[in-house]
Amino acid sequence: MKKLERRGLHEHVIDEIGRRIVAGEFLPGKALPSEAELCGMLGVSRTVLREALRVLSAKGLVDARPKIGTLVRPARSWNFLDADILSWLLKAPDADRAIDELYELRHLIEPIAASLAARNARAADIEVLRAACQDMQAAGNDGEKITAPDLRFHQAIIEASGNRLFSSLAPVIGAALTVNFELVRHVPRGHTHALPMHRKVLEAIAAHDAPGARLAMQKLIEDSQHDARTVRGTATRRAVSVDSRGVARRRRQG
Questions:
Q1: What is the Cα Rg of the chain in Å?
Q2: How far is residue 96's CA from residue 103's CA, in Å, rounded to a whole number?
Q3: How far, rounded to the nearest angstrom, does the alpha carbon of residue 175 sit from its chain's CA centroid?
Q4: Global pTM?
Q5: What domains are there in the chain, each with its CATH number?
Q6: 38-68 tens-digit pLDDT
């Protein structure tokens, strides 16, 4: 691990160790390197390291044991709905599985939430959705600017569903969506193609058309999943191409 500048040392230590655990570089049931080793590798103080380990413990990744050290916990103990863990999963070797699981979660909850919102949404809820759509339109194909209104749109539907359990899940869905949007930020076909389907969801909810809202949301998620697979496939092909050129060069040098 390389030493870093002072910027966000605490967050970076969390990210560096967490990413390595999720990627399998630090194995479940095994102790992490000692505090002295980790401090040396990361170039941080023991105080910064211990604070980071406490955060990782809260996420279910590690467990401090007296006289043994800090053990990596098995994957079944991890909080997979934590935004950081989702992000690390999408950078891990088996990222395709994480992407599929993320969309399975969205398919499970959001179409039903849209159907309920069509039945229960108040005028104020619909105005929030309209405003979010307008802001998405203004953002155009800017992958960073469109994220906030897109997230607001989906969370507003969860809130408008009227289901208190779904509303309690809003932060969880928000974390999943944040990672999702990060994944498709640089989708080749841009973001404006998704606006008509967002409007269909809005129109169905405003018309109190529960089946229509459910189907429109399902289609919206399917389109997003297609974009995620496209981005992932492009990244994989680039990595393979770079590796192949490197292999070719080494062969010529040999």
A1: 21
A2: 11
A3: 6
A4: 0.76
A5: 9-77 (1.10.10.10), 83-241 (1.20.120.530)
A6: 999 999 999 999 999 999 999 999 999 988 8
